[in-house]
Specification:
single chain; 62 residues; mainly alpha
């Protein structure tokens, strides 16, 4: 991508079912990065676990 806009205010009108299903797909991607065969190295595993923790806290808060 040439441009990425990260503005959480754009998500305020998203239906809860869409928001939560998107979060669950993101969980899948973090787990995939952590458990990938051959691995991508310790830094990738650490980043995946850190991201997963933040995501789960955000989903529970929602």
């Amino acid at each position: 991508p040439q441009l990425m806009i990260l503005n959480p205010d754009l998500c305020t009108t998203m239906p809860p079912s869409v928001w939560l299903s998107t979060g669950m797909r993101t969980v899948y991607h973090f787990v995939e990065a952590f458990c990938s065969v051959g691995g991508m190295g310790p830094s990738t595993e650490e980043a995946a676990l850190r991201g997963l923790r933040h995501l789960i806290l955000g989903l529970l808060e929602y």
